[in-house]
Amino acid sequence: MGKVYCVANQKGGVGKTTTAVNVAAGLAAAGLRTLLVDLDPQCNATGAVAREPSPRHPLVERTPIREAVTPTDFEGLTLLPGSRSFHDVDHLAQVGGAESELVAQHLSASLGAYDAVLVDCPPSLGALTQTALATADEVLMPLECEYFAMEGLTQMIELIKRVMTRSNSRLQFGGIVLTKHDPSLELTREVEREVREFFGDVVLRTVVPRDVALAEAPSHGQPVMEYAPRSRGTRAYIELCQEVQGRE
Predict the structure, then answer these.
(1) What is the CATH number of the domain that holds 29?
(2) EC number(s) per UniProt (predicted)?
(3) What angle do CA 181, 207, 20 make, to 5 degrees?
(4) Residue 20 is assigned to a structural domain of this protein
């Protein structure tokens, strides 16, 4: 079975889906059979690769993952689409205990066909995020270089620690990814300095810059390396993929 990366942060707008989509595309471009799993009811990862959400979520219906996935236009990248079904979102948001374990087992059951799996989580600490963490080998946490960057970070890290202490957990902290990085701004430099001083080597060296190509690519249904292959965003995500793989 390949490695499962969970991309999570309870705060919205930090580049979580952008990171999940573009790391998945980068690993696929490197020749890995890669699966992108959309667990966010907003289904932004699904739209970012020009696919439609499923009428029902396969994790609710317990549909075999191999029957629910769909290929994308990006070679080597397969998608498990999300669902906007209010019934399914409500059901998955309330699962807990034994049922949460069953959902995690169902998600894990068919992941062996892939070299890498990227799970895009909703911006919350709820059941969907906890289920994703329970299936993952590593968690990547995008962190925006803004004033409120540290808000809620402690809660997210505490949740990760709780999952890591479970007897059947294989989860490790893959790292914090600084996003929307603009070194010309004093605020960016301050946030980066504080985060690196506090978390040390947990913070990945690669930073994701503010780049209009990263904002435009999803509207074209493409990863940034396909939409704008010479952009700063593309270069950053290629370097991030190399760093993530190099830490294994």
Answers:
(1) 3.40.50.300
(2) 3.6.-.-
(3) 105
(4) yes
List the one residue out of 25, 44, 27 whose CA is nearest residue 84. Answer: 44
- Extended strands (E) in 99-199: 116-120, 138-144, 172-181
Mean pLDDT is lowest, of 60-74, 104-118, 180-194, for 104-118
pTM of this structure: 0.93
Cα 29 to Cα 174: distance, rounded to the nearest angstrom: 21
- DSSP assignment string, 200-236: GGGEEEEEEEP-HHHHHGGGGTS-HHHH-TTSHHHHH
Residues with Cβ within 8 Å of 173's Cβ and at least 6 positions away in sequence, in order, are 138, 139, 160, 164, 202
Could you list the beta-strand ranges (E) of the chain.
3-7, 34-38, 70-71, 77-80, 116-120, 138-144, 172-181, 203-209
Is 247 part of any domain? no
Per the CB < 8 A criterion, the answer to whether 117 and 28 are in contact is: no
More reliable by pLDDT, 141 or 58: 141
Structure confidence at residue 179 (pLDDT): 97
User: Tokens at residue 227, please?
Assistant: 């939409």
